[in-house]
Design brief:
It is a single chain. The protein is an alpha+beta fold and 283 residues long. It contains 9 helices and 9 strands. It has a 7-stranded mixed beta sheet, with helices on both faces. A two-stranded antiparallel sheet has the order 5-6.
């Protein structure tokens, strides 16, 4: 039984607690991955997927194709694209297939399917899509199913489709002048070497992983560390606290094949948007 006198004494003690302005989850995740300027970008693949880049241009005009927010790094902003059903697509497929494998085993089977999943494309619009369509009504699809399609092909197609969707955000940023050549990958998508290489090939960029990934909480700790004046600024704490583990470079042959597939992927939205809108009548 808790001693009431002890509790009263404990809560009567006055303590000085420092409070510092924090940041949104993705902003803190980016800071914790070392994204404090435009030399590196962030890709985070969890239930949803995020592509994030620092934006230092004072006259940046957002056309609405990506999100534009204040960074938790003082004086900076960032642009961000979002795929609503990233890892969620994998969870959905795993459930649909009645697959009781671990996610590690699930991903290993996808490796048995070749690049392009034997002509199968998947669009991850299970919950609509944010970037670049801002369309709550669009729904996902498999295009290219045939009698030879197997579970491994479907798994591979889903992983490729998620990555193609994230690449749409990267392409928008590149068209707006971003030089995207080094990307830090965090979240579930950073836990599989095949997927990391796929990101390098589809994004046509070096993919870096963290030695120790703690997510947004690590960025929040960095904010507190700078607030307590343990470090002069975020560039110093980034240098001291953040290390990178591996780098995956694009495979030139795969890069060419994925560029063709990405162009086909982008056609799927245009050619199915009207159909999926009409199907809402039957929901």
């Amino acid at each position: 039984m808790v001693n009431q006198a002890f509790l009263t004494k404990m809560f009567d003690v006055e303590q000085d607690i420092s409070i510092y302005q924090g940041g949104a989850d993705n902003a803190c995740g980016a800071l914790g991955a070392g994204i404090t300027d435009s030399t590196r970008q962030l890709v985070s693949i969890g239930t949803s997927g995020v592509v994030l880049s620092s934006e230092e241009e004072d006259d940046y005009m957002n056309d609405g194709s990506v999100h534009y927010f204040n960074h938790c790094v003082s004086g900076q902003n960032y642009v961000m694209g979002v795929t609503l059903s990233a890892g969620y697509s994998l969870q959905w497929l795993k459930k649909m297939l009645g697959d009781d494998q671990t996610f590690g085993e699930f991903m290993q089977e996808a490796e048995t399917s070749p690049l392009g999943a034997k002509g199968l494309l998947y669009t991850p619009f299970l919950l609509g899509e944010r970037t670049p369509y801002n369309d709550a009504e669009i729904r996902g699809s498999f295009i290219g199913l045939d009698a030879n399609t197997n579970a491994a092909d479907m798994k591979r197609a889903v992983i490729e489709g998620i990555t193609f969707s994230l690449n749409e955000s990267i392409e928008i940023m590149r068209k707006n002048g971003k030089n995207i050549s080094r990307i830090v990958s965090i979240g579930g998508g950073a836990g599989n070497r095949q997927w990391l290489q796929m990101q390098a090939d589809i994004f046509d960029a070096e993919i870096m992983t963290r030695t120790e990934e703690q997510g947004p909480a690590f960025g929040a700790a960095m904010i507190a560390a700078v607030g307590e004046q343990w470090f002069e600024d975020f560039s110093v704490v980034t240098e001291e606290w953040i290390d990178y583990k591996e780098t995956f470079s694009p495979n030139n042959e795969n890069k060419v094949q994925y560029k063709k597939l990405f162009e086909l992927y982008r056609e799927v939205y245009e050619k199915t948007q009207g159909l999926t809108s009409k199907l809402l009548e039957f929901k």
